Amino acid sequence: xxxxxxxxxxxxxxxxxxxxxxxxxxxxxxxxxxxxxxxxxxxxxxxxxxxxxxxxxxxxxxxxxxxxxxxxxxxxxxxxxxxxxxxxxxxxxxxxxxxxxxxxxxxxxxxxxxxxxxxxxxxxxxxxxxxxxxxxxxxxxxxxxxxxxxxxxxxxxxxxxxxxxxxxxxxxxxxxxxxxxxxxxxxxxxxxxxxxxxxxxxxxxxxxxxxxxxxxxxxxxxxxxxxxxxxxxxxxxxxxxxxxxxxxxxxxxxxxxxxxxxxxxxxxxxxxxxxxxxxxxxxxxxxxxxxxxxxxx
Length: 297
What we know:
CATH topology: MetI-like fold
Order of helices and strands: HHHHHHHHHHHHHHH
Largest sheet: none
Oligomer: single chain
Number of strands: 0
CATH superfamily: MetI-like
């Protein structure tokens, strides 16, 4: 750390370092910390007419939080959102782990470049447009239904958007890079000689991944799971466009509260979701036995 500061001072000078610290500090305070504190304050206050704000009725209360736990529908949607986000994270990890390993330890030269470009190019398009593409694919007259009808697998179009399946599929696709790159970054630093030595000693690929690759890639797995889970739990575009009334997402309830000027209730629900995301972060760090220092390295 001392060497890092010495290099920074040598490259930017004392004034430059002060400017960088002030810029970063101001951004953290005014763009992250202050809005969160305002949101937290809103969440503990009752919804009152403008003329009553600051009056005797404007006191801190847990009413906005109690509403979540006393409203069965909202509670069920909240649990379903968390569970579905865990499913999205699991699917993304299952798909991205072999891709990341192949990129880090197998693919070379042009093959590596082509695979990387294949992953990145779709993300040159706006997320909303990618979700609209999934809407076209999964609609009653979409490509998938037409293909299944053509090969005779089904007799009539299937409603893929009836449950949570379409939302989960769309999210798993939309956030795939947020899982691939942390995994690749962790696996890329693994010495290939360890894998070759294990193969020479007769270890199976399953044992190699369980004993060598996965323990080395734990920081990347933790980061990828955290990012995909938080993006999924906080998403509103995918549930809005791919979902149905039966696949309502908790973020849609939050959005509805803010849209109808019930900022206090919306803030309380948003803080509950943010708190649960924090629990998930520390849970991942605990499960994979990864510290914050390892994540930053």
